[in-house]
Amino acid sequence: MKIKLFFPDVFQRMIALSLLLSTFCMAAVSFADSAVSDEPGIIARVGEHSISMEDFDRNLGMIKERYEEMGFKPEGAQLDELKKNVANNLIEKELLYLESRNKDISVDDDIVEEELDQIRNSFADTGAFDEAVKQMGYSIDFLKKEIRTNMAIQALLDQELAAKAEVSEDEIKAFYESRPDNFTTPEQIRASHILIGPDSGGRDKIEGIKASVAEGGDFEQLAKEHSDCPSGQNGGDLGYFGRGQMVDAFEKAAFALEINEVSDIVETRFGFHIIKLEERRPEKVKAFDSVKADIETQIRRQKVSDQMQPYMDSLQEKYPVEILLPEMRP
Question: What is the pTM of this model?
Fold first, then answer.
């Protein structure tokens, strides 16, 4: 069976399995202290297929560097756990790929090319992409193989788990009714203000500006001329915001206004403000029909996630796994 693929959704489990894009973000790190295998160059066998130490070191190196970029350097027990996770991910990936082949799933060449083009287009130009591939010591054929493998696995999960995860109308309605906050957009307002800092004239200056507004002065123009806030360039327009996004005194005054009403002088730690309410959006609950499809997708994803471990267990029974790294054996 040949399946033409287009998958807008990528399940969380696939994030752990697919490391291809990461190779373009960092150099591969040779892991000098990797464990010694019973068979040099091989960390495990899955069915009749072998997982190489080279793949293990490359993937471990990528993940280590990603951690280090976040300021965390795994050592000791943490590094041992990381090794196990990398080895397990590679084994699971091989199990899934073997099963995709057993199910006669293949990926069309044009889909592989489209995916490769997306990777290529993430670089400034073709030259930068070619240089990255060269620095990694890879070839375009290798990248295509990785893309094909990952997409075949994704197709397998879609076919064997997602397509079989039925979601009823009652389940969708129950989800919607039990999580009202998820589907409610809180009240928002759009306001403009003029800010005068303590060093720019303070209360005396803001009182003069407020008097000008009361006499019919143009609020937007006065904001452009006098406001110390960067929003002054836009006539003081702050855009839409909800409760909890502004300092308390400002928020209280702004939400109490009527449309086109200008506030009294409001003092905050930033200085002195006058606020004009431009628009108000009341709290709105999203209609069931408008979110039904999203809820169905979310429930289906959870059902797929719940089935992943039993599915992986069944594949391990089908394809014998031999771990050749002694310290990673159960």
Answer: 0.61
